[in-house]
Amino acid sequence: MEQLKRLVTGIQGLDDLLKGGLVVGAAYIVQGRPGSGKTVLANQLAFNHVQRGGRVLVATLLSESHERLFQYLSTLSFFDPAKIGEQIQYLSAFDTLEQDGLEAVVRLLRGEIARQGASLLIIDGLLNARSRAQTALDAKKFISELQAHAAFAGCTLLLLTSVHFEEDCPEHTMVDGVIELGEDLHGARAVRRIQLRKTRAAQRCPACTNAKSPTTACRSTRVSKPCTGTPRGRAARPLSVSAPAHLPSTICSRAGWRRVP
Ligand SMILES: Nc1ncnc2c1ncn2[C@@H]1O[C@H](COP(=O)(O)OP(=O)(O)OP(=O)(O)O)[C@@H](O)[C@H]1O
Ligand SMILES: [Mg+2]
């Protein structure tokens, strides 16, 4: 059987969950409540991808300025300002979305994917696109057209959203994978968790016997920090990582991370 081509994320725990990385040309939703780490994860992936020769387009549908984003990314070790404007292009599509709607955003991104020669497209703020859609069909059309343009260009697509899409929602049925970021409280500790909720391409892990269906992964990697930890918007402190025994556990390459014994 032919092996699927993978885009290695360079984030070890995540590559293990994905059985080698994201499938090239596939579309993924990254979901989690506000502050769960979607933007940090996607940007870490972007900077890792350019280290491997890839080119990235990060399009934001958010009103937040890129300067603010760069300010807090600059506290993280993967961030390299020299790559911005070259291998990684940041584009704000907020005004286009507000003024001209979803179709105009698709047109804009189609042109920018080609101009940047992007092999990875990250769209931050999918919820705003959903809010701008007049009907559920418009929202579906937006995703499917983006998917089509990205796949045609051999570009992998990550759609970041802070809404918790349910398993049977149209968005989930359209994409190839759903990566969920969450947090559990364990006594005085808040444990960050990353979970693969749906995947069309990863094989099941032989160590996991309790997965209910092929689309509901029981695999998760946990990232923990003291509950009193990092306030929103401030530099992240060194964190600990833990994972089920069968999973190697490093999930972030930032200096200072350590494994939970
Ligand atoms: N892997 C991580 N380790 C430690 N801290 C993290 C990690 N990811 C995110 N954080 C912390 O959480 C904060 C919020 O992260 P981020 O902005 O990525 O969340 P988000 O899910 O994109 O939120 P929003 O939905 O509001 O955009 C960061 O400023 C950082 O302090
Ligand atoms: Mg964010």
Which ions, cofactors or small ligands are bound in this entry?
adenosine-5'-triphosphate, magnesium ion
Could you estimate the helical fraction of the residues in percent? 25-40%
The first-level CATH class name: Alpha Beta
Give the terminus-to-terminus CA distance. 39 Å
Could you state the order of secondary-structure elements as H and E?
EHEEHEHEHHEHHEHEEEEE
Q: What is the CATH topology descriptor? A: Rossmann fold
Largest sheet: 10 strands, mixed
Number of DSSP E strands = 12
What integer value in Å does the Rg equal? 18 Å
Q: Give me the secondary-structure category.
A: alpha/beta
Low-confidence stretches: 202-261
> Mean pLDDT, nearest integer?
79
Count of DSSP helices?
Answer: 8
* Domain tally: 1
> Given the C-alpha coordinates, what overall shape results?
globular
CATH homology superfamily name: P-loop containing nucleotide triphosphate hydrolases
Strand order of the largest sheet: 5-4-6-7-3-8-9-10-11-12
